[in-house]
Amino acid sequence: MSSGTGTSTFVIRWINFLTMLLAVAVIGFGVWMGAHHDNCRKSLTLPVIGLGAVILVVSIIGFLGALKNNSILLWIYLILLCIILVAILVFTVLAYKEYQLQDYSTWFLKQLNNSHNWDHLKSCLVKSDDCNNLSKRYRTLKQFKSAKLSPIEAGCCRPPSECGYPAMNASFYDLSFHPISSNKDCRLYKNSKAVKCYNCDSCKAGVAQYMKTEWRVVAIFNCILFVVLSMIYFVGCCAYLCNLFLHPQFDD
């Protein structure tokens, strides 16, 4: 084997080794997301971990192809990596598009309004710390009123501001006042920990806003991943083609 062929094979092996490390980083990012979210909001964790696992398998195929000088495995590696790049690009474009929409997509609203899906999500929210710990985080009414609440806290833990219910503390409102708004959420809100505003449209909007923010984080991560994988793909293609031209019998 010529020195040029040996060099290109060496490059392919190292490129795939780096891709394996990248795959481990992607899986680690997915695990980190899971560790920082409760069971209600892990919808993006499994896809990220799954993407990392797929990249890991593809990189192993490429590494074995370079190790054994097997052109079939290397072609499979390059084709699969190209498919992954296209998939990441499509997902990222859709994620940013979804984040920039003034209104939520019809498909997303349909999933959110599905009674089975919402009942499951609502049962999770009741057990989560979003509403249950508000009174512990904000000891005084002044602290609560000046706090910047998350979309879920603002939409699910309190009645809409337009209702006009006076807040007694961070988790209790005086419902004896007649609501000044015709918003149906005003009638749905209760001070009970098991009810709150979990049946309100404002709660669904809060969950939707939270999901859009999470999608944006993943989209930014995917942009970085796309750039790195594109560089790896380009170098891998150049190295493989160099090997192919310098050593036409490059096969097992």
From TrEMBL:
Keywords (A to Z) from UniProt: Membrane, Transmembrane, Transmembrane helix
One BP term from GO: auxin-activated signaling pathway
Origin superkingdom: Eukaryota
Classification via InterPro entries: TET_plant (IPR044991), Tetraspanin/Peripherin (IPR018499)
Residues that span the membrane, as ranges: 12-32, 44-66, 72-96, 219-246
The keyword Lipid metabolism is annotated on this UniProt entry: no
Localization: Membrane
GO cellular component, one term: membrane
Membrane-protein topology: Multi-pass membrane protein
UniProt record similarity statement: Belongs to the tetraspanin (TM4SF) family.
Protein known as: Tetraspanin-10 isoform X3
Record organism: Sesamum indicum
